[in-house]
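User: I'm new to structure prediction. If I give you an amino acid sequence, what do you actually give back? Let's try with this one:
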Amino acid sequence: MKVIVMGCGRVGFQVSLILAEQNHAVTVIDHDANAIARLGSDFKGKVVRGLGFDRNVLIEAGVESADAFVAASSSDNANIVAARIARNIFHVPRVVARLYDPRQAEIYKRLGLMTISTTNWGAERICEVVTHTDLDVVYTFGRGEASLIVIEASPQLTGRTVNHISIPGEVVVVSITREDQAFLPLSGSEIQEGDRIHLAVLSSAMERVEEMFGLERRV
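Assistant: Good question. You get back a string of structure tokens that encode the predicted 3D arrangement of the chain. For your 219 residues, that looks like this:
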């Protein structure tokens, strides 16, 4: 994919490095030369110095043929302006804007923009960690309504089938990793001791999952 990342702060920097390491064609835009320099000489992508909502800068970065645009600067307003230009003028298929102020998320949603609030995500992740200490939450969806968690199968689960630990509409077994090999289980697949089970769980069903697996919640 051809991806443009606007902003080379902490988030933009990490996103750019990860995408470049995954062999995507990454172009980073930032007006700060020092920020761009953080990428180092080994960075596999391209860098463009300038403002990410400047039409000429965007064209220089290749927005006309980009598959995705990530607005990750330190300014919510700049991110939204750049995201709208990328989506509405240059018709980039995938556009994501980072938000610091989660209160603005609903407004931008009405504009048809996909936003990521690191404030909300971080707060939700912290709450999951401190209140569900034995559940390893690896990803949250939406505004935290659902999570992807991983649990190591205990001896008491050995021999039970996937449909016995699934709750329609609340808990879904996504995958099982056994001896370093992951697979997508069927409803009748048997669980073996030591399996690492990935489950998609509604936040409202977390306590049911803990009870099902004999885990304790910290209060």
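You can read the tokens as a compact description of the fold. Here is one thing that stands out. The longest helix spans residues 76-89.
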